[in-house]
Backbone:
């Protein structure tokens, strides 16, 4: 990048982020602490997981399940969710045409419907 004389890079670039303030992560962390809930937000929970979970993760990693899931979620999981919803609520969803989706987290889950408008 060619440097423009007498102008700093910070003067050329303006942040798109809001100036300071409290993040949603801070708000939710405080709320979880106040009500004694388990915080599943960024960097939490703050306790060790079960040895069974560690064993299961290791087993699946060794079996080659170490890539990001497809954008719609793993087909077998979508299929199992559709079956469970049908058994519990009598509603049928077609996992082949994206009636059932598995997202990586709330932000992705909340953003997806807005993409389809």
Residues:
């Amino acid at each position: 990048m060619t440097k423009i004389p007498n102008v700093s890079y910070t003067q050329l670039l303006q942040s798109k982020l809001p100036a300071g303030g409290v993040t949603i992560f801070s708000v939710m962390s405080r709320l979880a602490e106040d009500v004694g809930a388990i915080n599943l937000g960024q960097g939490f929970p703050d306790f060790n997981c079960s040895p069974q979970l560690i064993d299961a993760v290791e087993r699946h990693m060794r079996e080659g399940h170490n890539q990001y899931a497809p954008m719609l979620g793993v087909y077998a999981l979508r299929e199992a969710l559709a079956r469970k919803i049908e058994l519990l609520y009598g509603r049928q969803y077609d996992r082949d045409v994206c009636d059932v989706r598995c997202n990586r987290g709330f932000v992705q889950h909340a953003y997806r419907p807005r993409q389809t408008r």
Observations:
- Helices lie at 9-12, 24-35, 51-62, 75-89, 106-115.
- DSSP finds five helices and no strands in the chain.
